[in-house]
Amino acid sequence: MTGGAGVLYVVLVAMASLLVAMCVAILVIRGLRQLFAARRAVLVAEVRPRLLASIDHDDVAAAAAFTGRRDAVAQSISLALLPKLRGADRDALARVLRFGGVIDRAVAGLTSRSAARRERSAELLGAAGVTAAVDGLVARLDDRDGGVRMAAARALGRMGAAAAVAPVLAALGDRRLPANTASMAVLRIGPAGAPALLQALGDPNHHTRAVAAELCGSLGLTPSVERLELMVDDADAAARVSAVGALGRLGGPSTAAVLVGRLVLELARPARRGDDGLGVALATALGYIGHPSAVPVLTEALAGRHRLAFAAATSLASIGPANPAHKRRARPGSRSTSSPVSAILLGRTCHPAAGVEVGVEPSAAS
Amino acid sequence: MAKILVVDDDPDLCALVAFKLEQAGHEVVVEHDGEGGLAAAVAEVPDLVVLDWMMPRLTGLEVCMAMRDTPALARTPVILLTANSQEADVERGFAAGADDYILKPFSPRELATRVDVVLGRISP
Hints:
- The complex is a heterodimer of chains A (366) and B (124).
- Chain A has 21 helices and no strands.
- In chain A, helix 7 (134-140) packs antiparallel against helix 8, helix 14 (237-250) runs parallel beside helix 16 and helix 17 (295-301) runs antiparallel to helix 18.
- Chain A has 366 residues and is an all-alpha fold.
- Chain A is elongated and about 95 Å long.
- In chain A, 70% of the residues lie in helices and 0% in strands.
- The longest helix of chain B has 15 residues, at 108-122.
- The mean pLDDT of chain B is 92.
- Chain B is built from five helices and five strands; from the N terminus they run E-H-E-H-E-H-E-H-E-H.
């Protein structure tokens, strides 16, 4: 055997040995996993019924009687169940976790060096409704990790912590929290957060003002109407549109007068492509309020661009057929039956994309 | 006592629901995926089915619709137990043939009460 062939033989033997060793290692790991899974299944089958019975009877001492691996299994089952439950069983489960020291460890975990642990701790405290942890969770809204900040906001929302509304909205304004996470948290807290929401309508940050206005509408906070009416002239376009949308949900006849006046101004402005958001919001809100005083300006808006004309038509239809403008425009066979309002009143499918005669954009008409 | 089929891919949740329903005096059959759930429904012909929506193989909605297409199960009450909380989801659930819709996080005691109410509606 030459020297080169000998080296090749050694390399091949080494590679084959390595392959065999890897196969053996994989088999051993699989076997161990199956063994651990089987042992855990046995433990779960033993622990779970006792844990469920102790929760059912609110017997914290019985649940805490688990030791060693049984205690670890009981805790993992409890942690898995906690976010899925509410009511008396959730409270009993939370008491079990508190008794076992899990809640205290989660409170301490909020300041852990590990972001994953801080996030898990926040989720657990929210799911368990640990109101004593509100301050710690509010502090996590400033966390350097985005996942932790969102987990803290979710937890505060789940706990219904009214004190958290202002810091959550502040975090939203600084872009530390995404709008949907902050909004969901405040919505879950509900009307208890009204004072902070009303305050936020005057926030220097336009993003905060816009979301606060939207939330006031979603939560039905009628005390916000006066401030929202002022926001119709807000310096920020998104805040204006949000305020108008909220007023559509909350407003009465006096609000309708404010919105009608603003829509008149909007219609008098020279139309520019892409800036009809406020007009559309105003027309839509007037439809929600449903006051007949809006009919003339909505009828005028039918001559606007597609989105505005469609919103005005829909609103006119929802205000009702009692006004003469509707009847005149809705008469079948008349020239105007192809307008959106006529189509809606006559029960036809109508969408701007389908092409209606009114509101054709200047560029398309030329 | 009624025979109730609980179908959910979460074993801990299944165990809790089964425990509560057994405490209320019902006989409970548990399955962990949609396909198994539908097979169990056909084999056991339960008095009521508690169905999760998001499950492997067949979703709860598909199981519910398949049950409605099976003469022996067409009138079996179904309670959907799901985290899908959107208005449109609730509408889809009822359109698929569900008799009740419970959102997660849920109260197991409330579920047991609703089961009794739905069973009371169908009992002669």
